[in-house]
Amino acid sequence: MISQAQILQWLQLFASTIEENKDYLTELDAAIGDADHGINMDRGWKKVSTQLPTLVDQDISSIFKTVSMTLISSIGGASGPLYGTWFLRASTAVAGKQELTEQDILGLFQAGLEGVLQRGKAQLGDKTMIDALAPALEKFGQAVGEGKNIPEALQQALAAAEQGMKETTPMLAKKGRASYLGERSIGHQDPGATSAYLMLQSLLAVVEG
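RESULT FIELD:
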């Protein structure tokens, strides 16, 4: 099980991780985008961080909804709507929950990814955050099906997300500003896939304690 308190810890840790990696994410985005992914994400997650202490009595779905609205309203570019949609859809998958089972996590990962797919109109291989999230979901589901517990399943999901993130480097971008670069987008790791990987990395860190 993952408790409501662990979810709050995860969100706080991810906010801190984004702050620590702000320059790195911006550097990645400078090569193929607007050079603002790290800055925008840090702005949004700083606002989320300030709200977390007010959410200690909320269920997990309500927490995710607040995170979603905060990100959508405070992050510019594509990142706000995409991450906001991920958390909004995730919230619908865990309505009323105070703790999450393996199946609950699988459901929220699935709902979040479907939301991002619909919102961004991107597919696997387009050099976006989906290239980290989709293989992570597949591995998590596979691991749960094999009877793995949450930390074990998340370890496998994170490894798949890392591989997917790294595989964006040789890809030709097909979405967003990076797609305008055509062949010049090849050879650069996607910043969105990188922040998505960091999100899962933060969750595993909290679950493993």
